# Entry
Amino acid sequence: MPRRPRAGQGRACRRGAPVLGVGLKMLFGDPVKLLGLVAGIAFSTLLMTQQGGFFVGLISRSAAVIGEAGGVDVWVMDPLTETVESPSPLRETDVLRVRGVPGVAAAEPFLLGTGSLLTAKGETTAVAMIGVDDGSFLGLTPRFVAGSPDDLRRPDAVALDQLAFANLWPGEPIEPGRLVEINGRRAVIAALTDVTPGFGAPATAYGRRSEVAALLGTPQPTSFVLVRAAAGEDPAALASRIEARTGLRALTAEGFTDATIGFILTSTGIAFSFGVVIALGAVVGILVAGLTFSLFVNENLRQFAVLKAVGLSNGRLALMVLAQALTVAAIGYSIGLWLASAFFDAVDQPLSDLKGFFLPWQVAALVAGATVVIIALAALSSLWRVLRLDPATVFRG
# Structure
């Protein structure tokens, strides 16, 4: 015959099921404290995700020129070049040497420099000047919003990004045809592009290499050699072959992007500055959530004492408190993430100064982990009161 359960054993089993429900009723039964907890976590999440998105967007701009260059498999540069925006010049003969490497389908010179653009109204801005090969246009962005690459074949023609155009001529129609001066020389905005702004200059202009070299007044008009690999050729293997044959530095587009971003991270204080702000968001979350959660637990000590008096173990009480904390974390994180996502959707517009800024899923995932840690610390700071609680408290007047 099956044994009959001991007295209280059935009730204990039945008590286990509704424990979480009781904890959630306690949590939602105090809407003021719940709102404070959710607001603290939401603000912390918003601050961390927003700053994380800013950091990624700003760092990504340092390699924007690489991402905008169409059809380029390998970038060849002087061995001293660290980033795409600070190249050391190459010799014209370097282009011919790269062309002689087996596996190279095309190798063309590419010029990158910085100039000063002046409008007829007296508005000025720094502009990143990009000169592509006069014949092949290798490295030219494909993202034109007005005009076409063929318009760059006209005398004095450049293609300006539309964000710079909108900032220079606010409220006016975005269309080609404006006359400007670049480094004191006449230039015509013959086309408009939708490129992402770079790291060092707020405006970007493309043109034929010969035209850009004249505007910049540079005697060495080759910053990089852009390579298109032959069909079936592995870009990484080709880059290694070019280095071995020429002694120049050669990187795939992806490798050059990583190298540029890595240099910016290690050689500037950007990472530290954003790290401080993100850490501040975490600290604010811990302080606000910890204080509010402590108040919530203190005001519900009598209820916890009742649960202990009827036989609820410390383990189940701890589970209840953690369930309350994780519920708050889920709600607050969802609200904060939604606000951050809405913010980046609003600012990532063609004519926004924050164009190209976005919220990567990796940042959202890291913030989710940080949020769990924040609320867990807040819960643990209050849990010891519950675990040390004397059940007789409920019988005291």
